[in-house]
Automatic annotation (TrEMBL):
Native species: Devosia pacifica
NCBIfam families xref list: ispD, ispF, PRK09382.1
Gene Ontology MF, one: metal ion binding
Residues covered by region (2-C-methyl-D-erythritol 2,4-cyclodiphosphate synthase): 239-397
Protein name: Bifunctional enzyme IspD/IspF
Residue(s) at site: Positions MEP for the nucleophilic attack: R160, K216
Domain 2-C-methyl-D-erythritol 2,4-cyclodiphosphate synthase: 239-391
Lyase listed as a keyword: yes
Length: 397
């Protein structure tokens, strides 16, 4: 059976008034949380998953410049954003309507305000959709729950064994939740989550165990707690990888080096666009991850990689780092050739690599040297490159 087409719909059109009610406040989803905007974290949590085919973000029409300023890596999976509305419910419906042209099988509706969502929770929700039309992560209540009409006197104590708090992503069969949301928008009732709409529409919704770290950033102090969770969860350790690659010259008029096309009296012969610098760099990252090398992921025998841009492989390698909840600390490449001259191209090379990996250009170094006319590189029979990658990964012990 074919894998269901799955889209993540991230709602980010709120104003975050409970974090800061002032008109000119930076909305919470655009605030930094341990070095990354909240919304960027939420988007990346889904973009990095192979079984998520596309990601759509619902934004507030007043936040367009803020959204465009997010350094989210360009990816065909990230669809153009759509504008939301006054309530979460309306924003979700706007997103669902925009997805009609894609008509995914499954949709995962997620609050931008839950940036710590884990792969485990997302995977469990998707797995839960095999047996139900809807599935949400939820947690049992751990404190005693009181009912009170005025917030003062107690009217009753609830049986908390039957009470759970709902999280996101809330996953649904797309057609059914779209129909339910449309019907719900026609009645005078405010629904606080999508599962409530599904329940109202008699769709069976199951629950899987949520995650305490998958908190919704709602009040100012939640930023402190989320940052602590990120730090505690990610007790990081450093991994170093090295890469080496060589390609020979053949007749041609340009070489690809570190993602830049440089006019030359020959071209390089080899896998894809024969970019030795990016190949060495990818191998360094794969090495740091302990995940084989470029040929493991992109076999040279596979015709689809013939002539392909090696930036595709670099993006893949850096996504693997993200999927492991790691981060690239720095990348260092040395290109060895008599010609062409590399130094004029270094700024562009650093830019290409930083864009492909979603890191600052200050974390990328490109060096070049001649081989003092010694050996094959000295005789201008080919070019070789060496690279080192330093990455941080959650501790494995
Ligand atoms: N009109 C709205 C309201 C909320 N949301 C989104 O729904 C999620 C959950 O909502 P909440 O945490 O309540 O966010 P805000 O509405 O922004 O917060 P507040 O109520 O404090 O203003 C958030 O990611 C928020 O951006 C939305 O897309 N459109
Ligand atoms: C959808 C939700 O995150 C489930 O817990 C929550 O209901 C959204 O919060 P809001 O404050 O009601 O927008």
């Amino acid at each position: 059976m074919a894998r269901p087409h799955t889209t993540a719909l991230i709602v980010a059109a709120g104003k975050g008034a409970r974090v800061d009610p002032s008109e000119d406040a930076l909305p919470k989803q655009y605030r930094q949380l341990a070095g990354k905007a909240v919304l960027q974290r939420s988007i990346e949590a889904f973009l990095t998953l192979d079984y998520v085919d596309s990601v759509m973000v619902v934004i507030n029409s007043e936040h367009v410049p803020l959204y465009n300023g997010l350094p989210v890596k360009h990816s065909g999976k990230l669809l153009p954003p759509v504008h939301g509305a006054q309530t979460r419910q309306e924003s979700v419906l706007a997103g669902l309507e925009a997805l009609v042209k894609i008509a995914p099988d499954l949709v995962l509706i997620h609050d931008a305000a839950r940036p710590l969502v884990s792969q485990q929770v997302i995977g469990d929700v998707v797995a839960g959709l095999i047996r139900a039309q809807g599935c949400i992560p939820a947690l049992p209540i751990t404190e005693t729950v009181k009912r009170s009409q005025n917030g003062d006197g107690i009217d009753a104590t609830e049986d908390r064994r039957q009470l759970f708090t709902a999280q996101t992503p809330q996953g649904f069969k797309f057609k059914q939740i779209l129909a339910a949301h449309r019907d719900a928008s026609a009645i005078d009732r405010a629904f606080t989550d999508d599962a409530e709409i599904a329940e109202w529409a008699d769709m069976p919704v199951s629950m899987v165990t949520g995650d305490r770290a998958n908190m919704k950033i709602t009040h100012p102090e939640d930023f402190v707690r989320a940052a602590q969770l990120l730090r505690g969860e990610a007790l990081m350790e450093t991994h170093i990888g090295s890469g080496y690659d060589v390609h020979s010259f053949e007749p041609g008029d340009a070489v690809w080096l570190a993602g830049v096309k440089i006019p030359h009296h020959a071209k390089l012969n080899g896998h894809s666009d024969a970019d030795v610098a990016l190949h060495a760099l990818c191998d360094a990252i794969y090495g740091a991850l302990g995940e084989g090398d470029i040929g493991t992921h992109f076999p040279p025998s596979d015709a689809q990689w013939k002539g392909a841009s090696s930036t595709v492989f670099l993006e893949h390698a850096s996504k693997l780092v993200e999927a492991r909840r790691g981060r690239i600390v720095n990348l260092d490449v040395t290109i060895v050739c008599e010609a062409p001259k590399i130094s004029p191209h270094v700024p562009e090379m650093r830019e290409v690599i930083s864009r492909s990996c979603g890191i600052g250009a200050n974390r990328v170094a490109i060096k070049a040297t001649t081989n003092e006319k010694l050996g094959f590189a000295g005789r201008e029979e080919g070019i070789f490159a060496m690279a080192t990658a330093s990455i941080e990964l959650p501790r494995q012990d």
